[in-house]
Amino acid sequence: MERKLIDEKLENTDSSSELIKQSADEISHLAIDIGGSLIKIVYFSTNSKCSTNDEAPTLPKERQEVPNGDLNHHILSGGLHFVKFETSKIEDCINFLSSKKLQQCGAQCHHSHAVDKIKIKATGGGAFKFADLFKEKLGITLDKVEEMESLVAGANFLLKAVNHEAYTYIGGRKEYVQIDQNDLYPYLLVNIGSGVSMIKVDGDEKFQRVSGTSVGGGTFWGLGKLLTKCKSFDELLELSHQGNNRVIDMLVGDIYGGMDYAKIGLASTAIASSFGKPVSENRELEDYKPEDIARSLLRMISNNIGQIAYLNALRFGLKRIILGGFFIRDHAYTMDTISVAVDFWSKGEAKAMFLRHEGFLGALGAFMNYKDGNADLMPLQLVEQTPKSSSCIVDRIHNSTRVHENESGALDCRLRVSSSFKIYDEVKRC
Ligand SMILES: Nc1ncnc2c1ncn2[C@@H]1O[C@H](COP(=O)(O)OP(=O)(O)O)[C@@H](O)[C@H]1O
Ligand SMILES: CC(C)(COP(=O)(O)O)[C@@H](O)C(=O)NCCC(=O)O
């Protein structure tokens, strides 16, 4: 999978050059989400490995007319790609974008010979913080899209359009959930990035941020770094696999002489106090195993988020809690802890669901913001049609269009692009 490959590459010091070598594809649209910890990029390229079919051949160089006779639009076939960088290594991201030659093939280049007219959709705090840097180093203007709006648009897109996107994680098993588009709302979106935002989503552009907590992914990684000396987030996660939280956490049984506190529904093995054990032990930090600390930390933060999410779901009578953000990282113990917390507190009434493109909600939402109606903006939408051949792209399930992932991890899809935006003419002129 491309995402895995890129993550591995980023572990290496010369990672960005490796990544750049693989990236000779032609980009027509690109959006960026610059968060407190990570930069996420979603781009559409026409050179993806998507199989072709007679109705919609892959087209690096030509425009296609929409078969329904809409002469104002063209179709581009290709793949949506997902890339991430650590925000602290923003230079890698700049080099990557520079290698993509956006100046030439442009996300949105309006005027010939005017490098500084390139605009890309950008969200997250970094769209403000790094605006000058992008301008200075790449000549790119960041066209800001509000962060919560982007998260919601990204989540809605994934839930409606992408096949096998949402799943529950129960008893160590992923179960994919096919959500009926007519029965998607309302739901609680919980985005676990550096901090956590909780958003009640009632419709396509109808939402309200109802809560949040500063105890999130940044807390796990920051505290973990201090307490275990791990050098990377993935190392800390890996370490947590081998740990035993009972060495660090004070359990109900530790307080109740090994017994359950049955009257209030607490088993002896339930955590009474996260990180509570060292209080009564005369030991130093070095006397505890880093893996046990990592495990307790992960459990404490996941549990806490699961509980706050449940309380907010309860507040608004929501049954579905959809979780995104890179903290989750498709990590079994994290998902299990959150699922168990939601199930326990809601007595099975609410369900926690995870997303395969968990960390890219904001970037996807910003990408979706390239919309019609403004001559300065590139009109864009995913085309809803079924290819004749079964090879890839989209299929219809329950009357809706679904997008598939190809073997490189990109989402095969097609974009409908207004004729008024002449991508390839602009390429030549820029
Ligand atoms: N390679 C990584 N480096 C740093 N943090 C990571 C990494 N992979 C996953 N994470 C986790 O993801 C969190 C950031 O998630 P993300 O959704 O990208 O939020 P933000 O928008 O705040 O950057 C981090 O706080 C950390 O818990
Ligand atoms: C400020 C943020 C929206 C920024 O998003 P992030 O970069 O963490 O993804 C987020 O960190 C957050 O919601 N923090 C919690 C703040 C609070 O409600 O207390």
TrEMBL record:
A GO term from the CC aspect: cytosol
EC number(s) reported in the record = 2.7.1.33
An example Gene Ontology biological process? coenzyme A biosynthetic process
Catalytic activity reads:
(R)-pantothenate + ATP = (R)-4'-phosphopantothenate + ADP + H(+)
**Cited InterPro entries:** ATPase_NBD, Type_II_PanK
* Protein localization: Cytoplasm
For this UniProt record, the keywords arranged alphabetically read as follows: ATP-binding, Coenzyme A biosynthesis, Cytoplasm, Kinase, Nucleotide-binding, Transferase
Q: What pathway does this protein act in?
A: Cofactor biosynthesis; coenzyme A biosynthesis; CoA from (R)-pantothenate: step 1/5
Among Pfam families, the record links this protein to: Fumble (PF03630)
Give, as one word, the top-level EC class: transferase
Lineage: superkingdom: Eukaryota
Under the GO molecular function aspect, what terms does this record hold? ATP binding; pantothenate kinase activity
Gene3D superfamilies referenced in this protein's UniProt entry, alphabetically: 3.30.420.40, 6.10.10.60
SUPFAM superfamilies given for it? Actin-like ATPase domain (SSF53067)
The UniProt family comment states: Belongs to the type II pantothenate kinase family.
Q: What is this protein called?
A: pantothenate kinase
What gene makes this protein? LOC104239551
